[in-house]
Amino acid sequence: MAAKRSGAESKGSHRRGVSPRSGQEPRSEPPLSLERIVATAVELLDAEGVDGLKMRRLADRLGAGAMSLYWHVGNKEEVFDLALDSVLEYRGPPEIDASQDWRGEIVHMLEDWRASMLRHPWSASLLPRRALGPNILSRLELLSKTLSGAGVADADLNVAIWSLWNFVIGATITRANFDLSDDDRAAAQQRLTGLSQHYPTIERSRLPLDNDWDGAFSKGLDFLLDGLAPRQ
Length: 232
Description:
- The chain is mostly helical.
- The chain is built from twelve helices and no strands.
- The radius of gyration is 26 Å and the shape is flat.
């Protein structure tokens, strides 16, 4: 028969919150909340990508039971929506005056958008197939308002928005996935040099060696905005 534990020992242990087995303070997790769930989902997505986000794995990171998550979110798809929208919040200049520098405002918005997605590479591939949340809708509203204020006609506004959207998403996905080493680039250029009679222009421009992603994005955006500038 096991020895009977003294009442003083038992009460003292529970009063101090000490585990009778280990003598250590029990680990205490912060209360489960929607904010914690979303923040932890972003961390998991950053670490393991879209395929790595499972409700059980998310619950383990939170130190909670999987079923307890469903008090806060309906399903994994909602977690994706919330995580995506949370990383696309735009904290731009507090005052927008599109009439004075509409191009500068748009460049700031789109560079910030690209930078946000590069910090969270899973977001660029996830965005086209998710419901648009309030943060991305706010970005699009501000972009539309700035273009409209600069004189882009309503009939051209959607084309302008989609053109800029496609440019940002495409540039981000390419940058996130086309990340060759210097040795790989040099080997690609050497191979192209051997085929220069077939591909003289890209061999001459040394396309495989060009890894100025930021410069290409900035200059390409200028090309687009030149085309969108209202004709006088």
